[in-house]
Amino acid sequence: MMGSAFAEVAHICLPLSEQNQAVYFSQIPGKSDIKQLLQQSVKQDKVPHATLIVGEAGRGGMPLVRALISSILCQERNPETGESCGQCDNCKKTHNLSHPDLHFTIPVIGAGARSADAMKQWREMMLDSPFASLSDWQSYLQAENKQFNINVLEINEIIEFTGMKSYQGQEKFLVIWMAEYLQKDGNRLLKIIEEPPPGMYIILLTEQREAILNTIQSRCRTLFTDPLSDEEIKNYLISEHQIAEEKAQSLAFQANGNLNTAISALQQSDDVGFQTFVEWMRACYTCSPDDIVSRADAFAKMGREAQKQLLSVGLNTLEAILTSQYLGADELRLPVDQQKPIRSLAKLLNLHQIQLTVNLLQEASESIQQNANAKILYTHFSREIHEVFHNPQ
Questions:
Q1: pLDDT-based confidence at 331, cuts 50/70/90?
Q2: What is the mean pLDDT of residues 302-325?
Q3: CA-angle at 226, arms to 91 and 279, nearest 5°
Q4: I want to staple 75 with a disulfide (CB 3.0 to 4.6 A). Which of 29, 88, 110, 244 is the partner?
């Protein structure tokens, strides 16, 4: 039964084999320290057999993993840089996520669901958007607000995969994307992570390190992907998406170190997160009941990941208000013609009020993570922020 699941994955992989969606270390913005570490590990044949990569998807964890695996399996790897050639048979399959010795475990929906059931959609998403997030995955599955999991059935398939011989060489790879969804069942993988079969590499990616069992963390080399700088995001958008520098700068500001956020905003409409937050603050200031209720309805329909992202943009905006107040508008990371909302809010909020608002947004984000009712939450925090606006002491 389980063996048929791997055959199913292999069958799904075939139609994309003619494409070549390459990901190289040199293409990934920032992360120079991690890239150098990984490339050096490959050149010296000292890649750890268990690695935990921590950080938001938009910081580049999955592209790093894809570049690493391609580099290890490449038959004509550059001996100086450790970069994969992109042309050999292994490269074509790994760049397209179709190599038979590469097994992905991903969060899915439903008690009896397996990664194989949704692998075709996930691969399509990753080939199209290498920095894709859990929110993007929800959209692909049309599964807003539904709960993901990596269940015991999938863990059984992982165990079976680790016991199989490699198809095309000595190495094989298990990649667990959003490993925080392993939860307690992840304990069953401890022995495999601690003593993997010869040639087996296990890579876990997570946005929530605290959700990974300590027993798993202690068996892995941990790498942290820091937020990208505005400059790194801006340059990537200009080079890869051919947009004007001013627009790229604006998107980089609201992205808050997350390239996927900037790309998503580019594909939707300019500055949607920033504008939405500013409009919310204006609504909080007046606190019209009809306006708050209407916005609460819209907020609840956004989906949990999008709600969290809006709050993240809000925290970034509050930081910009502080910058405007204490360092001057010249230090703002925004085009001049988009600084007006920042300057307007800066006139309404003092340092104490900004700190209270930051605390409220952080509390709201934690509540969303715990599946609080979004409509009630939005209404409650709108009123709390209204009180902050009108009580400067």
A1: low
A2: 81
A3: 115
A4: 88
In the block, tokens 């750890």 appear at 48
Model confidence over 68-119: pLDDT tens digits? 999 999 989 988 888 999 999 999 999 999 999 999 999 999 888 899 999 9
Nearest residue to 388 (alpha-carbon basis) of 308, 313, 270, 281: 281
pLDDT exceeds 80 at position 272: no
199 and 74 in a single domain? The answer is yes
Q: Which residues pair with 201 in a beta bridge?
A: 173
Contact 271, 254 (CB under 8 A): yes
Query: Which residue, 210, 248, 246, 264, is CA-closest to 57?
Result: 264
258 with 235: CB under 8 angstroms? no
Structure tokens at 376: 């009630």
| Domain extent for 333 | 271-389
The enclosing domain of 113 has a CATH number of 3.40.50.300
Other residues' Cβ atoms within 10 Å of the Cβ of residue 330: 9
Single out the residue in 206, 224, 242 at which a domain terminates. Answer: 224
Give the start-end residues of each E strand in the chain: 50-54, 102-105, 172-176, 200-206, 221-224
Angstrom distance (rounded) from CA 237 to CA 254: 13
Contact in structure between 308 and 134 (CB atoms under 8 Å):
no
Would residue 329 count as lying in a domain? yes
Asked whether residue 196 falls in the same domain as residue 307, the answer is no
186, 208, 224 — which closes off a domain?
224
Q: Which of 162, 145, 152 is nearest to 185 (CA)?
A: 152
214 shares its domain with 329: no
Please tell me whether residues 215 and 148 are part of one structural domain. yes
